[in-house]
Amino acid sequence: MYNKCFLVFIYFSLNIFSLKGNFDLKKIENKTCVVPLAIIGGGPAGLCAALYGARAKVHSVIFMGAMPGGQLTTTSYVENWPGVKRKLGWEIMKELQEQAEEFGAVIKYDNIEKVEFDKWPFILHTSSGNEINALAVIIATGAYPRKLSIPGEEEYWAKGVSSCAVCDSPFFKDKIVYVVGGGDSAIEYVMNLSSYSSQVTMLVRSERMRAAARMQEKLKEYPNVKILYNKTVTQIIGDKNKVTELEILDTGTKKKEKVIADGLFLAIGQIPNNSLFRSFLKVNSQGFIQVHHPTTQTSLPGVFAAGDVEDPDYKQAAVALGSGCKAALDAISFLHHIGITEMRLKRCNLLK
Ligand code: NDP
Fold first, then answer.
1. Beta partners for 243?
2. Using a 6 Å cutoff on CB, does residue 287 contact ligand 1?
3. Ligand 1 close to Cβ of residue 232 (< 6 A)
4. Distance between CA 327 and CA 308 in Å, rounded?
5. Is the CB of 188 within 6 Å of ligand 1?
6. Cβ atoms of residues 131 and 260 within 8 Å
7. Residues assigned a catalytic role
8. Model confidence over 218-258: pLDDT tens digits?
9. What is the pTM of this model?
């Protein structure tokens, strides 16, 4: 633990030292609207960063974006938020927001439309027409599950259709469920669901899976799991309240059939919300923002990334929460290193 902290400290010191000229505090002397810590995205990562930032008495402003509360608000009951046995996703996020606000975090229901990360202070342009000068930025814009875009998908989302097996498997006890996808996530979903559901069928759209061989091998241990190749779902049918049937297409013969189903899990990839930042920051081959592990520092000093936008693997709210905490600590450390001592700089009238 001590060694890791020491490494992080050395990392920041060397990085900031080499770029000290870029963060000359004279550059902020005449600015009228300066925010020490701007957080983009109001899901678990962003709100946790705001809580930690504000509690450390760093004036922290969070731009909630298009989906305040993040993906957790699109699910129903959550049973794996540590410390909370069972609660609606939006309620959990509302409490987290209130907790951040109690410590002074400023919540803005506004979207960031454009960023200028090629200058410092970094400039953020909001949908409402404001221009914010930010000394440090945390990107917590999340990701969204790739969808099939088929009839019934929107109507039955969270009523049998889900993209998170860890979150929703227990709701499908003794039920018949289908999983679409042939990657590692799909296999994890299937394994997770198999302990609850009576029958789990995995639909792979081609004749082979993309998942690692060792993952595919594991599936053989699950007696209630069936794998169908060259199949995908073309329609989700229900009784208005829940899913009852699926229309399945054989991608080879083009024949369609209807099957009885209680649930459909989509494991066909996540798309990170990074379009505003791609030209400034390094991203990996799937588009997730690269950070210098174990820190949350992106390829641009002063800009940090937390949660699903930088995490292609775990996709869990609790992981995003921890990542937001790390990003706030990293950003505070950065602000100290560049000499920001008056942490409650409140020159931005628009943001009081
Ligand atoms: P992937 O991108 O690896 O796989 C997506 C799967 O969905 C593919 O089988 C793809 O098919 C299929 N697919 C995509 N679009 C459609 C569609 N419209 N209709 C039907 N099927 C579709 O995503 P994952 O989330 O599985 O994995 C993301 C990353 O996370 C990977 O690097 C993976 O290795 C990693 N991961 C690792 C885990 C582990 O090691 N335990 C667990 C989970 C994820 P096709 O192959 O034909 O394109």
1. 238
2. no
3. yes
4. 13
5. yes
6. no
7. 164, 167-168
8. 899 999 999 999 999 999 999 999 999 999 999 999 999 99
9. 0.78
